[in-house]
Write a sequence for this structure.
């Protein structure tokens, strides 16, 4: 019986470790190797060792610098081969052994890498991903001691200050991504920002595909956009935050940040995975405005069940590196995650994390007014940023109407009224439902 | 008949594009959508568009900034669902459509992102990886026009200068990774470097897990190592290159480079994927010594057949970003790639690439003397760096003997003598074969 087999095979090595000295990482692993041998090979590969034990690798060195196996949890059943394994497949064939899954917990002495993101990633997510003898390797969680976290700034602003800047409480922040993604002049884009802001948006952002370009520079954009938002803010009596995408060559990021801040900009954005998490961490030490963290490129690290880093773990890393707002996927959207996975990503933005501030989770991807109820129900609280792109900018009556439709939808949600009923008196919401389809509850 | 179906379904859109204005990317794609619709949605998502066509997206804007579909090649047969697809699976179920594969070629106008690595990655490998409607997305090739390449430094030194520095021609460079990976003092590590160099190594490197640490700083290490190598070089009458791993916080990389150069170091190393490709590109503009590019973390982007970036494409990117030496996997090693895949990665180091210099490919992972013949046969030339870790440092008679064993193995290969025969007169090689196992031809 499988359950019995699971019980019998349960192995733990609660090696006596001083928690403050270690970063603890949990992996999902598939291998045809003996799981105890595999766990030790895995720990060695990522710390002191190699495929051959070296003579002068002393016990003292292993004790101080070796990764420790602190838990092995075999999973019942057999697995197919889920990743290519090069020439090591010959080994598998020869022994005629089956592939089995397990959850492995390793403790890495942080003296090996220090409070440095690139070196941390090399230690916990480096060479092991290419080992032919592991046919699945996914980092599913990462835990840091306070002694490690204390060297990181984390988000400078967090949820509270983002709300304070806007003066918005008791409901999600409502935002938009300007569409079309690229190709607009600074003047035209500012006009679109004005329309959205006027319609009630709290937040607007550059698409991740638009940064500092020859046809629309950050300098031009921040001037035109902030002037347009000043006008909109005065007219609506509310404030608007705009995330300028300063993803660029590394030597230009701080320069672009300064241009944004000097021209009255109130938020910057980084495509954190393409520029590198370390670049965001460095900006977090410097920034004077919140950092909006876009996740493009990172789904490549996270989407396979058999390889990479889980998104909740990655969200922790984004937060460690100073993201004030983090893309967490889309509730009922067009992305690959289930709603439950999105909610788990969001939890990683706010769970207790030593002295590191919380970050505001972002629900984005295929959103429009009619998805407000399902966002509210699935997420279960209002501390998030609800972002629409086409759902606002492709509203049949334009961006201002698009923004109004989402504000109206959230008014209805907060009042406990069905959107279709509320839409009887709210033209923009009615038109959105007519155009985009059924409301999702 | 499948072949007939393939012929019938072949679609091409050779849109008239000016090659100089576009970066051309080839993807492997699986989707249940109509492939032509999917290709256009894909192109829109990564350039001007979103899930909803926006009214003011003009034809002129699309013409200038939109990604162009320049080839669609449907693959015969049906696919299982190879990646999770969130709530979009409902769509698939409803229509009861099968998932089909295709190869898709897209042309991205580089005016959208400019000669900037993070923005390039966002454009070609950004949001599309999280689209639920694509159940496999792998970037398999990327081609750049000269007008784009001209803004990149590429490798400063390349194969020729790396050889000139050492004065080694007509055979592979022979190198080692110091083991144990971490935990050694600078003095102890320098002593091990001396032993290896004395035994005939051309090249030695820090393990990717060792960088600038509290117990062994770059400053101490470069002093001790370079003094030890000076001694070894005088004694052996040959030169040795040492790659110091300066992967660190971004604001320390150039400082560490300077420490290496000022103390006589002749090579620096970066874990390019964990620190970010852009960080290497920036260093390439600045460096005075060759850059050794370690690939740890990148297998997470490359190993799944259904997600990410192929390693040959990634190798091109490493080269574009200035790597003089690039890890390409291991021939008959412990990694996930077949030998043929490793050889393809290696080709990407040297193929014609506009004005960008070539890079020296590195074969590393589970290597020792007895794998020299198979490396020679499979790679088919000698312009590569053959790196062993445990295969040298775990030699039963120590590192000097380990280094000698690999030099002897290559002498035998160059002379066309079987290693077992050559070993009759060469004790170190004999001991290696005795210890590590059978020679692979």
């Amino acid at each position: 019986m499988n359950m019995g087999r699971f019980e019998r095979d349960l192995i733990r090595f609660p090696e006596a470790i001083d928690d403050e000295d270690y970063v603890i990482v949990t992996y999902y692993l598939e291998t045809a190797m003996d799981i105890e041998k595999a766990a030790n090979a895995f720990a060695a590969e990522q710390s002191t060792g190699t495929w051959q034990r070296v003579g002068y690798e002393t016990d003292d060195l292993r004790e101080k610098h070796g990764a420790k196996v602190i838990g092995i949890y075999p999973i019942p059943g057999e697995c197919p081969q889920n990743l290519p394994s090069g020439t090591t497949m010959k080994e598998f064939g020869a022994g005629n052994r089956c592939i089995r899954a397990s959850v492995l917990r390793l403790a890495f002495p942080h003296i090996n890498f220090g409070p440095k993101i690139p070196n941390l990633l090399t230690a916990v997510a480096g060479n092991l991903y290419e080992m032919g003898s592991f046919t699945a390797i996914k980092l599913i969680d990462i835990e840091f001691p306070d002694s490690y976290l204390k060297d990181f700034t984390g988000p400078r602003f967090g949820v509270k200050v983002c709300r304070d800047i806007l003066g918005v409480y008791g409901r999600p922040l409502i935002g938009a991504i300007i569409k079309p993604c690229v190709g607009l002049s600074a003047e035209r884009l500012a006009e679109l920002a004005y329309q959205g802001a006027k319609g009630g948006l709290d937040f607007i952002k550059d698409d991740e595909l638009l940064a500092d370009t020859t046809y629309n520079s950050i300098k031009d954009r921040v001037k035109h956009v902030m002037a347009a938002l000043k006008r909109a803010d005065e007219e609506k009596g509310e404030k608007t935050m705009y995330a300028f995408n300063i993803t660029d060559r590394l030597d230009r990021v701080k320069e672009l940040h300064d241009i944004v801040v000097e021209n009255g900009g109130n938020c910057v954005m980084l495509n954190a995975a393409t520029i590198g998490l370390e670049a965001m961490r460095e900006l977090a030490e410097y920034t004077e405005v919140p950092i909006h963290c876009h996740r493009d490129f990172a789904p490549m690290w996270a989407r396979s069940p058999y390889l990479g880093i889980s998104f909740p773990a990655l969200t922790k890393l984004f937060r460690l590196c100073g993201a004030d707002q983090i893309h967490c996927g889309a509730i009922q959207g067009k992305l690959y995650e289930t709603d439950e996975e999105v909610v788990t990503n969001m939890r990683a933005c706010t769970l207790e994390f030593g002295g590191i501030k919380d970050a505001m989770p972002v629900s984005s991807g295929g959103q429009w007014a009619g998805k407000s109820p399902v966002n509210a129900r699935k997420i279960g609280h209002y501390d998030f940023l609800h972002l629409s792109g086409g759902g606002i900018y492709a509203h049949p009556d334009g961006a201002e109407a698009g923004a109004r439709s989402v504000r109206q939808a959230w008014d209805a949600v907060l009042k406990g009224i069905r959107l279709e009923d509320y839409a009887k008196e709210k033209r923009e919401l009615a038109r959105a439902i007519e155009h985009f389809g059924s409301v999702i509850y």
About this structure: Chain A has two domains: 2-149, 158-436. Confidence is low (pLDDT under 50) at residues 1-10 of chain A. Chain A touches chain B through 104 residues (CB under 8 Å). The longest helix of chain A spans residues 218-236.
